[in-house]
Design brief:
By secondary structure, this protein is mainly beta. It has 6 helices and 76 strands. It is globular and about 115 Å long.
């Protein structure tokens, strides 16, 4: 269990534990660049193997050009390709060696011997009491009733005489169905006006004479629905309706009598007919199509393909085309037709093809002529049915324009070029489409027959797009000539926007502070500026909440100091940054303002509320950070521009009273007052900084003090999760008391809890059971109860409450959920096994088997079996070398998906069980993308005739080679300049050390570079080391002249020529992160020196910062802030030392906050000459594991 600090309100997203709030928004357009979790930078060094150099093994060349997107650690084992390729097929039973049995000759027993054996049995006594009648289940429990119950006498005391039925009219047929031409006839129904039979059992009614005749005769059965309605259903196993393509005559003869003696005077007849074959689906149905397509047609009823094809006429233009039925092999090779057959009803389709290829660029017509027969009835079609498509034509551009249909196009609208044929994406090259003038951020994508172009198109500009003559369609044709297309971009709609937040702080390097707004095609903007104090913040939030209300008089807090229209001079259709100057309204060097900006509105125009900018603007040189737990606040005041700590800063809790002052490190600590803190104010001379707890205007709560209460944690489980009514449920659980303060721990409940009580509540709210159970000295308990036979189905709650002294403990009760359901018990069982024995290697195969057998005895033969095989990259750890890393190492402290192992891939296969109930699956391990171990899980699902399905699973490991190479280092990081020593060992699968095998090791420094429009991590400065294996670990040393992240790869080859490799990452102090253009919270990398710690250890943590020479604040917390410590970064890395104490068990959070400054850069990370440095801040946190091992 891990202990954490409860969360409070914050304005910058943080990790767990302690809240940190920092306010800073630059007055410039935000361009967000995602910053990753690790850094890398180093120079090559010389590998040292300490002896002779064995023959090297080639390493995967990808290691030298590995690239990783910004924000992600480098590839550390992720599979960029399909992973392990497995071919599935039917397998065969592996022959087993059977011991030859010696036949034994037996002698039949005599009658006397048989009688002597039977006489030893006890006499059979028949017990009549064992016989029981069929017992119906009890009525289910009704939900608890609300309201009053009114008692009435039943039956009523009033004498009511039952009326006698009177049938004066003659027997008639009231209605019948179907009638006339119908699309489908599911049944025949005849209803009389009088009862025709007496009430009886279904079996007796089935033997009654049926007074209805149907022509033609069809197999089926009549049944009575009540006493007046007669219903006929077909008994065909092919369809659940009457046959199609048939005309029916139904006769009810005169003279039949009803159950009350009335007679039908006249014969009643009616006719209805079902239609002949009608097309439901067909393919191909659109163009362009290849010259040798496979035709597919499905109908709404069964047909005879050999009879229907004689009535199909295919023409190419005006020329007839000879056709023939397709073979099974041709059908299986056609993906589109095979897919349609999978969804078509059996016996209702046909597939055919032409004898010769069809002519190109020609319309193809398919006509199913009148007279087409059905396989269900004698009627034939009365009219032609047809469809058409076209074969492919020479490749050409059909149209081009804007994706949104505007003419001219609006700026930023995607452009498209549509061809008559789909484009071959594999043959497409990015140079085949050129744009003039250059389109910023252009992106060209192909979707079928369309090229889509996106980018920052400029208004009132004409773009020329040239498509190269070599562009190719899916039929192998090229365009043949360059196509030059014109796109005219019109004017953009007016727009205005500003900061995303409602609270911003100005750039401290700006000598003339001004708020930036951004406009397109506006010539002016209406601006109001109000001078405010921190005490106006609650009123400002209320103003924003009421802003769009029409029935409230709005009042902006503060003193209005500016109200005018600001003229805008900007080119048409270009994004323009305008500045709202604030320096003239300052009283000193700092100030607080509310700025409201609105675009001009015409007389008959509505307000564009979404373009209104309403923001609280702060001008200060104080950078303020706040960290808070349940009872304490730590405030850190630094120079906003340089990050230097500020001493003597007065901290006020939203009132005139002073709550603390910062020390020499810029830190002030104080207890949270009981009334809470609505916002913070920091004063230093004439400078004032203000920080609210949140910038969301619907949240006006501040930082509040919270009392800590120990928690009762429950762990409860039951034996089956799902039960039938009447079954017994067993539950078992434990309780622990969790301390919630800084020294809190997991404790036994002791004598505070002596018993637990439980109450079982059904899905309808009925109480099903109650009881109590004792709690032992370890906090454990168990109990069981029986569900009533009439319990309602659904989810049932078991409410468990402790009995004892629970003062000062929260979470006193526990809810456990079970399911009550009726379900069919399994009739057979399925087990899966590996038929062949391992180990398994790539390039070899394995045989698996699934066996199905009835519980009553006997196999399940000829049963549908579906296999699903999943392969997942994994690591194999040979025994006895637990301190070495084999395979692809993942940093244990990463909680993101950057070190994912490539994901799971799956394959499926279907078959049937043999006479013994077995099905054998062969898996051929053809290849793998990266040499590493794969875990393969195979699930075999078997269906019986009742569609009951049960699944068995088995697993195995596929190895890339028979040898593994392991790597080990003493630490996760070293200081820059220190040698990085890597121990290596080569073992077989059983962990036996293997000697005289060459190990090729490479260490590459990962460096951030701007390539292809984004920051990527690239492997540079590769160092090599080749060493021979022995029965003891050998080592390689690598130089570390530059800091950063090093990716180390070791490769070994077995005697069969198969390669295996291991890879891990280590860090060197120093290094750089990709630069950030904007002022935003960046990421600090924290790398511990080991995975677990014990009391008395000193944890060394390498801090890698995204900027150099900053000031840091170390916060150690565990259910609250334990301590803080300031430190200064000399360069971009620093090593922290944290003593581990016994009271920190089982875990401890270490958090680092950094502030400072760094150079301003452009989008490519290039430093801007002459620009002042920008403020920078970053955060990182790690959870140290301290298990109770002693």
């Amino acid at each position: 269990m891990k202990l954490e600090i409860p969360q409070t309100m914050r304005s910058i997203p943080m990790n767990k534990n302690v809240e940190r709030t920092r306010r800073f928004v630059m007055a410039s357009l935000a361009v967000i660049m995602l910053v990753g979790n690790t850094l890398a930078c180093t120079v090559p060094g010389q590998g040292n193997n300490g002896g002779e150099t064995p023959q090297p093994i080639p390493i995967d060349p990808n290691v030298n050009n590995t690239t990783v997107e910004q924000g992600s650690p480098a590839q550390n084992g992720g599979d960029g390709g399909p992973g392990l390729t497995i071919q599935l097929s039917d397998g065969q039973e592996v022959p087993s060696v059977i011991e030859q049995l010696v036949p034994v000759t037996g002698v039949p027993l005599t009658e006397e011997e048989i009688e002597a054996i039977l006489a030893r049995l006890n006499p059979w006594i028949e017990d009549q009491g064992l016989e029981v009648d069929f017992r119906l289940p009890e009525e289910i429990l009704r939900p608890p009733l609300t309201g009053d119950t009114i008692s009435e006498t039943f039956p009523s005391s009033v004498d009511l005489t039952k009326p006698q039925p009177i049938f004066d009219e003659e027997l008639e047929v009231l209605r019948y169905a179907p009638d006339g031409q119908v699309a489908i006839a599911p049944f025949i129904s005849v209803t009389f006006n009088q009862p025709m039979i007496a009430l009886n059992t279904l079996e007796a009614l089935a033997e009654e004479d049926v007074p209805v005749q149907v022509t033609p005769l069809i197999p089926g059965s009549w049944r009575w629905l009540g006493t007046r309605t007669l219903n006929f259903l077909s008994d065909s196993y092919l369809y659940d309706r009457l046959p199609m393509a048939t005309e029916y005559l139904v006769t009810i003869p005169a003279g039949i009598q009803s159950a009350v003696g009335k007679t039908l005077q006249d014969t009643v007849q009616f006719r209805f007919s079902t239609p002949p074959p009608i097309i439901e689906d067909y393919y191909p149905s659109y163009g362009p199509q290849p010259l040798e397509p496979l035709f597919f047609i499905s109908f709404d009823q069964r047909i005879d393909p050999s009879a229907v094809i004689d009535h199909i006429q295919v023409t190419a233009g005006n020329l007839p085309v000879q056709i023939k039925l397709a073979t099974q092999e041709e059908i299986q090779e056609d993906e589109y037709v095979s897919r349609r057959i999978d969804y078509a009803e059996e016996g209702r389709w046909l597939a055919f093809r032409a004898f010769e290829p069809l002519p190109a660029d020609t319309g193809i017509s398919i006509v199913i002529k009148a007279g087409t027969p059905s396989a269900e009835g004698p009627l034939v079609t009365e009219y032609d049915q047809s469809y058409s498509f076209s074969t492919y034509a020479p490749l050409r551009v059909e149209e081009h324009g804007c994706s949104w249909g505007d003419e001219p196009c609006r700026p930023l609208t995607p452009l498209y070029i549509r061809f008559n044929n789909p484009i071959d994406m594999d043959a497409y090259d990015g140079s085949m489409v050129t744009i003039e003038p250059e389109l910023p951020n252009a992106s060209v994508n192909i979707y079928g027959n369309t090229i889509n172009i996106q980018g920052n198109t400029q208004g009132r500009t004409t773009y020329w797009v040239t498509v190269d003559s070599l562009i190719k369609d899916q039929f192998g044709q090229t365009l043949g000539h360059d196509e030059r297309l014109k796109f005219r971009i019109g004017s953009a709609d007016p727009v205005m926007f500003g900061p995303d937040e409602i609270f911003v702080t100005m750039d401290p390097a700006d000598q003339n502070p001004a708020l930036s707004l951004y406009t397109i095609n506006y010539n002016k903007v209406n601006v109001e500026i109000y001078q405010v104090e921190p005490s106006d913040w609650p009123a400002f939030l209320q103003y924003l909440r009421d802003y769009q209300s029409t029935d409230i008089q709005l009042t902006v807090p503060g003193k209005k100091v500016f109200d005018d229209a600001v003229a805008i001079e900007s080119p048409a259709d270009k994004l323009t940054e305008i500045y709202i100057p604030l320096a003239d309204h300052l009283k000193g060097e700092s100030g607080q303002f509310i700025v409201i900006a609105k675009p001009p509105k015409g007389l008959f125009q509505e307000d564009r509320y979404w373009e209104h900018v309403q923001v609280w603007v702060q001008i200060t040189d104080i950078g303020l950070d706040a960290f808070v737990d349940h009872s304490e606040m730590v405030v850190w005041a630094t120079d906003l521009l340089t990050g230097a700590p500020l001493s003597g800063v007065t901290i006020k809790p939203g009132t005139d009273s002073t709550i603390g002052k910062t020390d020499q490190t810029g830190v002030a600590k104080f207890d949270l007052p009981s009334e809470g803190i609505p916002y913070l104010v920091a004063e230093r001379g004439n400078d004032l900084a203000f920080m609210p707890p949140s910038s969301y205007y619907w949240n006006d709560s501040g930082w509040t003090r919270r009392s800590l209460v120990d928690e009762l944690r429950w762990y409860v489980w039951d034996d089956r999760q799902m039960y039938k009514p009447g079954e017994e449920v067993y539950l078992k659980g434990w309780m622990r008391k969790i301390g919630t303060d800084e020294s809190g721990d997991v404790e036994l409940v002791g004598d505070q809890v002596s018993q637990v009580s439980y109450q079982v509540i059904g899905s309808q709210g009925n109480e099903l059971a109650t009881g109590q159970a004792d709690v032992n000295s370890l906090g454990g308990f168990d109990f069981h109860f029986t569900l009533p036979e009439n319990a309602n189905l659904g989810y049932t709650q078991v409410i468990i409450n402790p009995i004892g002294s629970m003062s000062g403990i929260s979470y006193n009760n526990h809810y456990h959920q079970i399911r009550v359901q009726e379900f069919r018990r399994p009739e057979f069982e399925v087990s899966a096994r590996n038929e062949t024995t391992g180990p398994y290697f790539v390039g070899e195969q394995a045989i698996l088997a699934v066996e199905a057998s009835y519980y009553a005895g006997g196999p399940l033969p000829n049963a549908e079996t579906n296999w699903y095989v999943m392969s997942t990259p994994t690591n194999y750890q040979p025994p006895n070398w637990s301190d070495f890393s084999f395979g692809y190492w993942t940093p244990w402290w990463y909680y993101d998906f950057s070190y994912q192992d490539g994901g799971t891939t799956g394959e499926s296969f279907s078959g049937v069980t043999d006479a013994s109930g077995n099905h054998y699956l062969r898996m051929d391990f053809e290849s793998m993308e990266n040499p590493r171990a794969y875990s393969v899980i195979a699930e075999g699902t078997v269906f019986d005739v009742n569609r009951q399905a049960w699944t068995g699973s088995t697993s195995l490991t596929v190895h890339p080679a028979s040898l593994y190479v392991g790597m080990r280092t003493d630490r996760y990081f070293v200081e820059k300049g220190e040698p990085l020593e890597v121990d290596l060992i080569v073992t077989d699968l059983d962990g036996n050390a293997v000697i005289d095998r060459p190990i090729n090791v490479e260490a590459a420094r990962l460096e951030w570079k701007y390539q292809d429009g984004r920051w990527q991590e690239v492997a540079v400065d590769t160092q090599e080391c080749v060493v021979g294996s022995t029965d003891e670990p050998v080592s390689c040393e690598f130089d570390t002249p530059r800091g950063g992240r090093y990716q180390i790869t070791a490769v070994v080859m077995d005697s069969e020529g198969r390669i295996n490799q291991s890879r891990m990452t280590r860090w060197v102090s120093g290094g750089e992160r990709p630069p950030s253009r904007d002022v935003e919270q960046e990421q600090v990398n924290l790398i511990p020196d080991q995975e677990i710690y014990q009391p008395g250890d000193v944890a060394e943590i390498l801090v890698q910062a995204p900027f150099s020479n900053g000031e840091g604040l170390l916060t150690i917390s565990r259910n609250g802030i334990i301590s803080t410590e300031s430190f200064t970064m000399d360069g971009s890395s620093h090593t922290l030392r944290v003593p581990i104490e016994e009271k920190y068990i089982p875990n401890l959070y270490v958090k680092v906050d950094l502030v400072g400054s760094t150079a301003r850069t452009d989008d490519q990370g290039e430093e801007l000459e002459g620009a002042p440095p920008r403020p920078a801040f970053a955060v990182g946190q790690i959870n140290l594991s301290i298990p109770p091992l002693k």
